[in-house]
Amino acid sequence: MGGYSPFIFTDNDEFIVIDQRFLPQIKKVKLENLNDTCMAIKDMIVRGAPLIGIVAAFGYYLAIKNAKDLDELNQASLTAYTNLLATRPTAVNLKWAVESQKKLIEQNAFLPVEKIIKKVRANAFGIFEDQKKADYEMAKNALVLFDKKMRILTHCNTGSFATGGIGTALGIIKYAAQQNLVEEVYVDETRPYFQGSRITAFELSKENINYKIVTDSACGILMQKKLIDCIIVGADRIAKNGDVANKVGTYCLAQLAKLHNVKFFVAAPESTIDRSLNNLSDLDIEIRDSSEILNFNGVNLAPDGAKALYFAFDVTPNYLIDSIITEKGIYRPDFEL
Q: What EC numbers are recorded for this enzyme (predicted)?
């Protein structure tokens, strides 16, 4: 369940990421500083809530690594914190990761600057390693939900290219497949970036797991014809009451799943749970540039002058969710996270 990684951070501090906009073609991009890191997150070179947090943590280190004294370090830290937080507002892992780096610097201000910088670097690797462990724990916890070989629908990409580990929802599918508990995976293409057909299908191919790509609009007929046993998705933010923000289209899937009596599961690390929010009714939903709907990789998909509205995420209310799976266990209704 591996063999590919969305990034490399070398002993010499070379930070190289795979540009996920071009997958399944492999195109690498070198991130040399804070501005490069912010661009990579904002422009979807890297994506997936856990991976965004990890990349931000390493970008934070790049931003402060050359500080000569505490004043310079604190200024670089504030700049990194502010700029990274501004890249994408919805996924909470980003905020969690940069706050972890900021607090580490504040709590170790009594140390020599060079030691603080080393701690920031180590913390970035720690966040990465913790995510990989969390992925495996999630996958193991989820097995109790598989009472037979399952036909699963999944949305967007929640695998190695979203977390750096085996993945959240897709990690569960990979792990269950190893236990011979997956009959087939339906991969919705996930417009407008096609993370499903480009990235999830790529990962399933590498794992030799049986799958079919379907259009986003086919989810209803798949359930109507009883071709799906459950839906497993990831999350970008989860409130205390179990409301889930995830890739736009998740809410539609959950509504149809409830209508057709199909189990709907959410998989995410504990770091995705925002316990400062009782619910997500007032969540700031990212609206991305309309060109991302009207064009794809330089190809015009609509007439000149066409307008578009692109919400990147939507919110699925807790009553549509059967279970939330994390590395700590399985939360069930009524959710009290």
A: 5.3.1.23
Looking at residue 93, the DSSP 8-state letter turns out to be: H
Pair 174, 165: CB distance under 8 Å: no
Cis before 303? omega within 30:
no
Angle between helices 113-142 and 92-107 (to 10 degrees): 140
Is 236 catalytic? The answer is yes
Task: Evaluate if pTM is beyond 0.85.
Answer: yes
pLDDT tens per residue across span 92-104: 999 999 999 999 9
Which of 236, 243, 274, 314 is flagged as catalytic?
236
Instruction: Give 80's Cβ-side CA count (13 Å radius).
Output: 31
The yes/no answer on whether domain 140-331 falls in CATH 3.40.50.10470 is yes
Half-sphere exposure for 303 (CA within 13 Å, toward CB): 2
Produce one character per residue of 116-143: b if its CB has 16 or more CB atoms within 10 Å, e if not.
bbebbbebbeebbebbbebbebbbebbe
Instruction: Assign a CATH topology to domain 7-136.
Output: Four Helix Bundle (Hemerythrin (Met), subunit A) (1.20.120)
75 membership: H or E segment, kind and range: helix 70-85
Instruction: Give the three-state DSSP class for 313.
Output: strand
User: pLDDT tens digit string along 152-198?
Assistant: 999 999 999 999 999 999 999 999 999 999 999 999 999 999 999 99
Domain spans in the chain, listed from the N-terminal domain onward: 7-136, 140-331
